[in-house]
Amino acid sequence: MAPCHKKKYRASLEFREKALKALEMQKRSDPHFGNAGAVANLLKAALAKASAARKCQPDGALELLPEDISDRGTDDKGADPFAELEKLYRMEHVRAKLEAIRRRFAVADEEGDALPILGHFVFTGAPGTGKTTVARILGKMLFRCGLIARPDVVETDGLKLTGEAVGQTKKKVEDELKSARGGVLFIDEAYDLGKGTYGSEACSALVAAMTDQTYAGLVIVMAGYQADMQSMLDTNPGLKSRFKHFLEFPDWEPADCLDLLETNARTENFVFEEWESAAKRVMERGFKKLRQLKGWANARDVRQVWDDLKERRAERLSAGPNATLGGKSFSLPDVEAAMESLYNARMGTVGGARKTGTDDPFAPLDGLYRMGEIRRKLQQLKNTAELLRREGEEAPAVGHFVFLGAPGTGKTTVARVMSAVLYRLDLIPRDHLVQTSGLDLTGQYVGETKRKVKEELDRAKGGVLFVDEAYELASGQYGKEAVTALVDAMTSEEYAGLCIVIAGYKADIDAMLETNVGLKSRFGHFWEFPDWTPEDCLEQFLRTAKQKQFCVDEGAAKSIIPPGFKKLLPLKGWANARDVQKVWEGVMQNRADRVMGAAGGEPALQLHAKEILPEDIKTAMDAMVAARLGSGLLPSDSGTPSSDPFAPLDELCRMESVKRKLQELQNAYIVAKQDGEEPPPLGHFLFVGSPGTGKTTVARALADVLCGLGLISRRHVEETSGLEMTGQYVGQTKEKVHGLLAKAKGGVLFIDEAYTLGQGQFGSEACDTLVAAMTDPRYAGLVVVAAGYRRDIDDMLRANSGLKSRFSHTLEFPDWGPEDCVRFFKRTARAKSLGLDEAACAALERGFAELVLLDGWGNARDVIKVWQATTRARASRVVARAEEACGKALVVADVATAIEELIRGRTMAEGTVSGRRRAAESGPSARAADRGPAPSGPPMPEGRTRDAAPTPAEMEVQADASSEKTETALAAEEVVCNEAGGDGDGDSRAVGRDPGVSDEDWAEIQMAKEEEQRYAERVRQEEEERKRLEAELAEALRQKQLAREAYEARMREIQRQKEEAERRLREEQRIKERLRKIGNCPMGFAWYKQGGGWRCGGGSHFVSDAELHRSFGFDA
C-alpha cells in the first residue's frame, strides 16, 4: 500500500455533517471547549481510524467517512453501559428510568430541538442496593449521549466533604468539584451534609456550584438512606429544587437474596444439597433476621454469605483424608454456619451455628406455681408458628405483649422463657432480653427521655425489651414523651423484629394505655398474672420443702401459713412468690438457730434432722407480718387488745345498741369459724350521729374486734375527715385519697365529717375514688367507716349512686340528754375520788338542760369541757381558802362557774339568733329561777334521736309549740320595730321600754338591735361588691370579644395574603412552564424572573413581560 501523505485527505459530505454535529454536542457539554483544539483532536482521531481501516486513493488522498468519527460514550473496550446494567440484579426500574432519559435527549437531538435541562440525581436506598454501580453506569451513559464531556465518576461521601475548621469545608468541596468537572460527582452517605455547621456549609457550596457556569455540564449524584436524605435536603431550602431525578433502590427481600445465591451457584457450577428443603429454609430465615438488624447491606451481605460458603466448603474438604469431595456442593452445615457467622458478626457476638437442643424451653416455668394458663398461651404461640412453617406458610408477626399483675407473679421469668421460645421459632432474630423500668426510661430534662428510650431499644434490638412498672410512663411530661417514642419504635422498620413487653399492676397499666390513643392498639397479647391466695402460698411452701427434702407437719403448716398470708395480702408491698420465698428463708434461719442452739454450737446428728417445726414457721410468719406493718412488734403485740375489746364503750353513755350490734357481728364470725363455714362478707360501716357521741372510740374498738377475728391484718385506725380527703386543684384529690388508703391498708379508715365528700367538684371526685377503692383488689381487707350527721350523710350518699350500696352496716349514735351528762360526770368524779353532792348534781342537770338546746352541742366533748372547768374552779376555790378545810369535793359554786363559762362562750359564738330563740322559748321568771330555758316542745321519747323522723303525734305537738313560738317571736319583733324610732339615749327606763322588762332582757334586746344594724350594713356592702364584680366581669367579656374580633380579622387578612401569594406562584409556574416549552436561551441557560421580565442564567438574554404577552397572550 502506497504511503499516504499525513496532511492529504478528502472529507465526504456525510463526514462533514457528522463532525459538525459532534463538535456542537461537545461545545454544549464542555464549558472549556476550545474551538481549534477540538477540531484538531477530532480530525486527528478520524485520520488515525481511517488509516487503519482503508487504503489511500490513487491520488494519495485518504477519504474520511462518517464511521471514522467515534460515537461518544463508547469506552476503550467498546462496552455498552446499558449492557452492564442488564447484568445487575433488581435494576428493572432503574434501567427504565435511565432509558427514558436517553430517549428524550436522543429525540430532541434528532429533531434539532433545544436539549432539555439534564439536572442532578438523588439515589435513595440502603447500602448494597447498587447505587455506586449505577452511578458509574450513569456517567458512561451521559457521556455516550453527549451530555457530559467525560465518562469519569469521582466518588466521595458526605463526611469527606465537611471540614473541621472555618474555610476547610469550602476548600474540600471545591477540590472535589474541580476533579469531577465535565463528568459525574457521586456523593455517598450525603445525609452527613445535613449535620452541624460545616455540613450546612458544604450544602451551601454545592448549591452555589449547581448554578455556577464554571461547573456547567457537571452532574451531581447524592446517595443515602431515604429518611436521612429527606432530612438532609430539608436543611437547605434551595437544595432540593436543584435535583430533577430521584431514583429509589429498595431493600432486597429474602427471596431476592436466594435468587442471587442460586444464580451464583449455577454460574460457578455449584449445587446445594437438599436445596428445596432444609438449606433453602435456613437461608431464607437467616436473611429475614439479618434484614431486621442495623447494617443490613443487601447484595453485599449476599456476596459475603457466598464467599463464606466457599471458604467453609474448602475448609471442610481440606480437613483430612476422610473428607469426601461429593462434587461442587454445599452441605447443610456449611449453610447454617455461614448464616450464623454473619448474624453473629452483625450482632457483635462470637459464636458458631445456632444451638438446636431438644431441651424443653418451658422448663423454667416448672419451678413456678400457677403457671398453667401462661404455659398454655406460650404453647399456643409455639404450635401456631411450627404448623405454619411445616405447611410452608409464613409465620405471622409476633406482636407486642402486656403482662398484668402484681410483683412476684412470675412476669420477668415468663419474659425470659418467651424470649427463648420466640427465638427457637425464628420469630425474633436473637434470644436476648433487656430489662428496664418505666422510671428508667424517663429523663429529667428535654431530650434525655428520647435518648434513654433509644438506648434501650438499640440494646434490645432483635430480641425482647421488658419494661417493668411501665405505668410510670403515664406520669409527667417526660413519661408521655417516652410513650410516644415507644409507639414510634413499634412501627419503625429500624426495630422490626423487636418484641416489647410492658408489665405492671392492671389498673395502673390500663390508665397508662389511655395516655396515648395509638399505644393500646400496638399490643396484640394481654396476659394476666393473678395474685396468689393464702392457699397458693401454702402449696408453694410445701412444694419447696418437698424439693429440698424437709419434713413438715402439714397440719401445723395449714394452721399457721394461710392465716399469716391472709394478713399480708392487704398490706402494701405484697409480693406473692417473693414473700413466700422470704418466709421460707426466715424458716431456714429459725431452724438453723434452733438446731445450733440445742447442740451448743455443734449440731449433733439427731438434732439437725431435716425437719421444720411449727415454731420455726410461726416465728418467721410473725416476723414477716411485723416487718410489713413497719413496726418492730409482732402482729399479736401491735396494739394488743384487752381481754374485753368493748371495755372502752362502757365509759360512754347510750352505747347499748352500738355494743349489741358489734357483739352480734363478732358472734356471727365466731360461730361461722367454729362450724367451718364461710363467714359472711364484712363490708363497710356508717356511723351516724353528732360530734362527741363516741364514733371515733367505737371505730378503734371495731379495729380491735375485727383484728381479733382475723378479718383485718392490723389494729390500726387511720383517722381523717372528708375535708382532708379533698384537694384544691385537679389531680390532688385522687392523690390524697390513695395516700390515706395506703396508710390504712390492712386496717380501718375512719372518715369523720364524711358528708363533705358530696360537696363540690373535688368532693365528688373524692367520693368516686373512694367507691372505686372499695372494690379494688389492692385494698382488699381494708374497712372504711364514714361518720357524720344523719341528714348530711344521707345527702352524701345520694350524691353518688354507687356509694350507699358499699356500706353494709349502719350504727346510730344518739345525742346525750342531761341525765346522761350527769351520769358521765358522776362516774368521772367517782374515778377521781371527788365528792359530788345532790345540789351540785341538780345544778349540773339544769346547766346541761340549757346547753343541749344551744347550737354546737358536743355531747361527751362538752361534758369533758364542763368537768375540766369545774376542776379549775375548785382549784381556785381551794387555793383562795387555804386556811379552811375544803375537803376533796365539788360544790355547787364550782359547777355553776363551769356551766356559766361554757354557756357564755356558746351564746357569744351564736349571736342574735340564739338570743331570739331563748327569748321566744323562755320567760324572764323561768330564766331568773334556774338559769336555764324550758325545753321547746315535748320531751324526746326513749330511744329516739334528735335527727330521727318524728311520728305523726309528735309532729302535731311540735306544730302547736311552733305556733306558740311564732306568736312570741312576732311580739318580740314588734317591740324591736317600735324601739327602732327612739334615739337610744335614755337609761334603762327610756321611752319604748315596757314595764317589768328586766335589765338583762333589755340589754339583750339592745344587742340584737345592734346586730341587725351590722347585718344590714354587711348586706349592703356585699351587694355593692356583687355589682362591682358583675361590672368587672362584663368589661372582661367585652374586652375578650374585642380581642376575638381582632384575631378573626387578622386571620382573614393572613388568609387573603396567602391566597394572593398562591395565585402569584401559580401564575409564575405557568410562565415557567411556557418558557420550558420555548426552551433555554440560545446559550443553553435557564430563565429566571427579574424586574419586568425574564433573564437567562448567563445574563446575556432578556425577555420582557410585554413580549411574552404579545407572543403568548398572557400577562407575566
From TrEMBL:
One MF term in the entry's GO annotations: ATP hydrolysis activity
Top-rank taxon, per record: Eukaryota
InterPro entries per record: AAA+_ATPase (IPR003593), AAA_lid_6 (IPR041627), ATPase_AAA_core (IPR003959), CbxX/CfxQ (IPR000641), CbxX/CfxQ_RuBisCO_ESX (IPR050773), P-loop_NTPase (IPR027417)
Region listing for Disordered, in residue ranges: 912-999
Alphabetical keyword list: ATP-binding, Coiled coil, Nucleotide-binding
One protein family per Pfam: AAA_lid_6
Keyword tRNA processing among record annotations: no
Coiled-coil portions: 1005-1078
Family annotation (Gene3D superfamilies): 1.10.8.60, P-loop containing nucleotide triphosphate hydrolases (3.40.50.300)
Location of the AAA+ ATPase domain: 117-233, 397-513, 681-797
Keyword ATP-binding: yes
Similarity section: Belongs to the CbxX/CfxQ family.
Protein name, as recorded: AAA+ ATPase domain-containing protein
The species this protein was found in: Eutreptiella gymnastica
